[in-house]
Prior knowledge:
Blueprint: E1 5-8, H1 14-17, E2 42-45, H2 48-61, E3 72-74, H3 75-83, E4 86-90, H4 95-106, E5 110-115, E6 130-133, H5 139-146, E7 153-156, H6 166-186, E8 193-197, H7 226-240, E9 250-255, E10 257-259, H8 265-274, E11 277-281, E12 287-288, E13 290-292, H9 293-306, E14 312-315, E15 321-322, H10 325-333, E16 340-344, H11 346-363, H12 371-378, H13 387-393, H14 401-414
Helix pairs in contact: 4-9, 5-6, 6-7, 10-14, 11-12
Amino acid sequence: xxxxxxxxxxxxxxxxxxxxxxxxxxxxxxxxxxxxxxxxxxxxxxxxxxxxxxxxxxxxxxxxxxxxxxxxxxxxxxxxxxxxxxxxxxxxxxxxxxxxxxxxxxxxxxxxxxxxxxxxxxxxxxxxxxxxxxxxxxxxxxxxxxxxxxxxxxxxxxxxxxxxxxxxxxxxxxxxxxxxxxxxxxxxxxxxxxxxxxxxxxxxxxxxxxxxxxxxxxxxxxxxxxxxxxxxxxxxxxxxxxxxxxxxxxxxxxxxxxxxxxxxxxxxxxxxxxxxxxxxxxxxxxxxxxxxxxxxxxxxxxxxxxxxxxxxxxxxxxxxxxxxxxxxxxxxxxxxxxxxxxxxxxxxxxxxxxxxxxxxxxxxxxxxxxxxxxxxxxxxxxxxxxxxxxxxxxxxxxxxxxxxxxxxxxxxxxxxxx
Length: 418
């Protein structure tokens, strides 16, 4: 970027060489970059197109650009732009991705939101956000779409959590990640950190006998859903892909169930409770964990700043809850409406989800009660060990369930969802 520019006056090239500015000529008469006054050093553009492109970036960050009509800008502005960290966030229009975008802006990064042509920008209204369309179905398309860009950080939050066909999970979550990783390595991107949003689901239903034990990183993953399998294979893509001797400096985050404003699955539970029905499955005790979306975002930026390449971390709010805790809190926020609590046997759920899958394939519409949902509701132990991220990165969850549910329910009510 900005390859057709020159610096004036033309002398003493060495004083700016340390900045690694991507320009044709690095020349300056001063001895210290911070001693430069605006009248002494300028960047002159060779084409009006580059002038407009460069100045459009300047206007986003500075109160004024000196001598704009003569196609000049201060070197300080140029230096500041180049020193700003650039972050690419995939899945930016989604629930988690949009919160990561907001936090990146608060970190004063140059934020690039990767979206599809059909993606909604409803929660991406900040004018500082840059957009880029990426097609994860093709490595070659990704190379073309990314070849003009360079990023310091990448957060890969794109993916499918629900699919009618099992194979679509692997096409989107696994193959899409493979194409993305290949493209980034082939383009020799100077990436300092690649954060992959995976899931606790990659471990599946283990330690299911009472008394339950925490799922630990030393356990062997046994995913019991197509979603969990596809995410586990995507993790292996990051660990095993080598291009010309290079690998990505990746970190993996494995959150438990993520809730918060704009999330739609837990919203359906809240909507059901407002309609006087609370539904649960199974008679054996179920230990559940949660993480509020803002705590997950906190972990993303800790991973960017502090994590070592190749590490993977479980994420929860640090507490263990019973299956009724969430619904009790939701009901309280709704003013304690009367309700009927239905606890169905797991065998009945298996029958319902079996036919739900068939119906989905026939109609082409995803049923909320499908095989993956059966496995999730059936699983009794969602405990996991978050001490590694607490000790290594300083992760401190700020939202216990009561606070998070209140903030979430307030958002649902204030935005007319419920």
